[in-house]
Amino acid sequence: MKEMISPEAKKLAAERAARMKAVLELKEPDRVPFTGLGGDVVAAYAGINSYEYNFDFEKNRQAVLKWLTDFPCDTPRAGVGGLDNLTMSVAFVDFPDLANNFFMVNGPMNDILKMKFARFPGREVDEFSSQQFIGGCNMTSEEYDELIADPVKFSYEKILPRITGSLADLGSPTALAAMARLGMEKARQGAEMRKTMQAVAELGYPLGGGASFAFAPLDYIGDHLRDIPNVVLDLRKHPDKVKAAAESILEVLLKLTLQGKATGAATASFPLHLNEYLSPKLYKEFYWPTLKAYILRLADEGMKSRLFCEGWHDAHLDTMLELPVGWGTAAFDKTDVRKAKKVLQGHTCISGGIDVNVIMSSNPANIDEYIKELLGDMMPGGGFILGTNVGNLPRNTPIENIQAVYEAVEKYGQY
Amino acid sequence: MAEFLKIKQELIDAVSELDEEKVTELTETALRDGTEPLDILEAVNEGMLTVGRLYESKTYFIADLIMAGLIFKEVLGLEQMTELFHARNKNKIGKVVLGTVQGDLHDIGKDIFRGLMETNSFEVIDLGVDIPKEAFIRKVIEHKPDILGMSGVLTYTIDAMKDVVGALDEAGVRDQLKVIAGGNHLTRENCAYIGADAYANDAFDGVKICLEWVKEKKNQGEL
Question: Does the interface ipTM go beyond 0.90?
Answer without folding.
Answer: no
